[in-house]
Design a protein that fits this description.
mainly beta, Neuraminidase, globular, TolB_N, 6-blade_b-propeller_TolB-like, signal
């Protein structure tokens, strides 16, 4: 069946269901040439035990103000520290009673709670101006009440949440040696049937917003040059064409529906999956007007770029769908592998992708060449469409799990530890990108 007869089916190729593509199927293998089962390929690999690693115990100091700005600043900082997976953040209920309303910091009362570090996150409106002053301090309990980190910023009031995330990233850096990645945003597609819309959401799950029209079927959103949001959409059963958030259609030098879209991290290259006869091919160029064929692999979908700028995607293998980096497969043949992403983790680049396992889909991780495979999820429904945080330490993904917090959008450490749900929405085609530079101005401390 030709692709134009399967527009909606192909729009969700490489989805959470572990099934072969509906078009351009390979011939069924003979029994002697049958592929191994996914479980045979994964062997005895189980979920990595990152959740058991003890974490530093920290606390966020209670708020000393009733200003809404202060409440927002503290709540954002606390949430980011919890989601980072780098710390055990003690609950407010476990904070010393003497700390609430205290005018001065007494680290001894926190030492009794076995807290190693304290975070102070404050905000106050500037009288007579549409500005807010943000301040963050970090204290190591063993060092007493002398702050080891102290920063102040003056920001536009409308940028409070965005700048609060930037402060959180700096605090994470003060505590770990590397800044966090929460000054960022995600985009994805959610919906079923003919109601599939592009959404954006903050990195902590705040304020999910649909941005594509209801009358179009949307796929493959990605942030591109100028931090503009692009996606492909079909209206009235027409071809999937690239659209922008301003409503403009982007013309390409070749015909065919678009089913995948990605930009390199520096936005100097763009990759597009385009229907060509009975298959889908990959094209790459410095811009949409200068696309050229990039691969001979069929059914080339879900393009992405590695941290070093290499093109990666999922495409046809002998027995199913494989992950390719510059036309070299890095996933085993026989696994239905989809949706690759590459995390520039402090311990080295890791590829994360989804694999079909029976009726479920799990996330696995390898190095950039496919070595050292580990399993990040197991026995928890369909988990797919991973996306790496800008700092490389977290991976976001959609899950249909019914245990724990239930189905939704999750973030977890790259070692598989401490998954936390940030939204009840379940979708596909997830991307996670840093925000453009902020407007805050650093102030000198008094």
């Amino acid at each position: 069946m030709r692709l134009k007869k399967n527009l909606l089916a192909l729009a969700v190729l490489s989805s959470l269901a572990a099934s072969a593509p509906p078009a351009a199927r390979a011939e069924e293998p003979t029994p002697a040439d049958a592929p191994p089962s996914p479980e045979d390929l994964l062997g005895n690999i189980v979920v990595v035990a990152g959740a058991t690693r003890p974490l530093p115990r920290i606390a966020v100091l209670p708020s000393s103000s009733w200003d809404e700005e202060d409440v927002i600043m503290r709540s954002v900082a606390r949430r980011d520290l919890e989601l980072s997976g780098e710390f055990e953040v003690i609950s407010d209920d476990d904070s010393p009673e003497e700390a609430w309303g205290a005018e001065t910091l007494d680290v001894s009362i926190w030492a009794k709670k076995k807290v190693e570090a304290l975070v102070e996150a404050r905000a106050r409106p500037v009288p007579g101006q549409d500005k807010v002053e943000l301040r963050a301090r970090v204290y190591f309990v063993r060092n007493g009440a002398a702050a080891v980190f102290d920063k102040r910023f003056l920001i536009p009031a409308s940028d409070l949440r965005e700048e609060a995330h930037r402060i959180s990233d700096l605090v994470i850096g003060a505590l770990t040696g590397q800044n966090g990645g929460f000054a960022s945003r995600m985009t994805f597609v959610a919906g079923v049937g003919k109601l599939r819309r592009v959404f954006t959401v903050d990195a902590d799950g705040h304020d999910p917003k649909p941005v594509s029209p209801t009358e179009e079927i949307a796929v493959a959103p990605a942030f591109g040059k100028g931090d503009a949001l692009y996606w492909a959409a079909s209206a009235q059963n027409g071809e999937y064409r690239i659209r922008t958030a301003s409503g403009q259609a982007v013309d390409l030098p070749m015909k065919g529906s678009v089913y995948g879209l990605a930009f390199s991290r520096d936005r100097s290259r763009v990759a597009v999956s385009i229907a060509d006869g009975g298959t889908i091919k990959m094209f790459v160029g410095p811009d949409f007007a200068s696309l050229a064929p990039a691969s001979e692999v069929g059914m080339a979908l879900r393009p992405t770029f590695t941290p070093s700028g290499k093109l990666a995607y999922s495409g046809e293998g002998r027995f199913g769908q494989r992950i390719y980096v510059e036309d070299k497969p890095i996933s085993p043949d026989g696994l239905f592998a989809s949706a690759p992403t590459f995390c520039n983790h402090p311990d080295g680049v890791r590829a994360v992708f989804a694999v079909g396992v029976g009726k479920d889909t799990d996330l696995v991780s390898t190095d950039e060449r496919g070595r050292g495979m580990v399993r990040l999820t197991q026995g928890q429904g369909r988990n797919g469409y991973p996306a790496c945080s800008p700092d490389g330490r977290l991976v976001a993904f959609f899950s249909t799990r019914t245990s724990g917090e239930g189905p939704g959008l999750y973030v977890m450490r790259l070692d598989g530890g401490r998954p936390k749900r940030i939204s009840t929405l379940v979708g596909d085609s997830l991307r996670w990108d840093p925000l453009p530079p902020g407007r805050g101005v650093e102030m000198k401390n008094n």
